[in-house]
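Q&A log
Question type: sequence-to-structure
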Amino acid sequence: MRTDELDFHLPPHLIAQEPARDRPGSRLLHYRREDRSITHRRFSDLPALLRRGDLLVFNNARVVPARFYLTKSTGGRFEGLFLSQWEPRRWSVLLKNVGAWSPESRYRFERFAPSPGHPGTGRGEGQSSIGPGPHPNPRPDYREREPEVRIISQGDEGQFTIEVETDEDAISLLERIGRMPLPPYIQRDKRSDPRDAADRERYQTVYARESGSVAAPTAGLHFDPAVLQQLDDRGIERAFLTLHVGMGTFKPVTADTLEGHDMHVERYSIDGACAEQINSAKSKGRRVIAVGTTAARVIESQPADQPIAPRNGETGIFIYPPYHWKHVNALITNFHLPRSTLIALVAAMVGLDEQRRIYAEAITQHYRFFSYGDSSLLE
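Response status: OK
Response body:
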């Protein structure tokens, strides 16, 4: 399949820079494969569109405030993005504009300076008891100096290994000094932005639990406690798995054909309860609906000829037409980048011609695109 078949023109003003005023207030494009119909709704209508007995499978990954800044002894600063901590004090990161470096050079994390309106320690909108609230100590003691850092080695495509001179684990440190790793198409001031506090809350699902992602599973950003309660009231079941979203999810397909694309690999976990719920739904003929492409990829990575089992693993599955879906019957997802692996997955769900028609309709109707944008139900 040619990559340019997934291309389209998106007017820049349709790229959402902020989320909807309230989570389920975003728009919802409802597409039915049975009759190829398109209707325009609000996300708050979702419970009424689903069937009793449907199983929604969510990705409960929690986004790490992975973006940080390091300062040099000269006063210069450069940007970093946390990827993983693979042993005590050793991080894998992306660094931007680091310039010349040596293992002897020392850098220091820039101290987190909350913008006006920082939520402090209480629970914010949409947190409730379903997911954890903000980090319990978001305001550091500014009298304490943040730990020093030295660069150990440099890899490909801006990837580095750094040594952080502290025994504090990476997640706790980043909760204090980091900013949310918004994708590059969402514009924010470099040093500090009055929307930083809101981003900490809204670039996170209300059911997020397992820290480790450097990007949000954005299909879930539209759910709030009220919508989840309505799903329960209508007999719609929920299951949770974990896939830690990596930066590869935003990587465009640069190869001429999809077969030539080197797909990124991401870590996932399916526990016993989730496996049992999916197996039960399938055995009883109930629909399995993936909330987002990340949940869809995890489910479809499981064998077709045996029950789904609890497991921790990695997936590099690349779903594009003509793909035969093994487990997932429908999909809730946002609107995606041209020439991306995510829009290829959408095309695999509805067919390439229908994907083009759906996206043309969304553009005509001024839907908001990408991470903070509107949603779709494809069934």
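Response note: The first strand starts at residue 27 and ends at 32.
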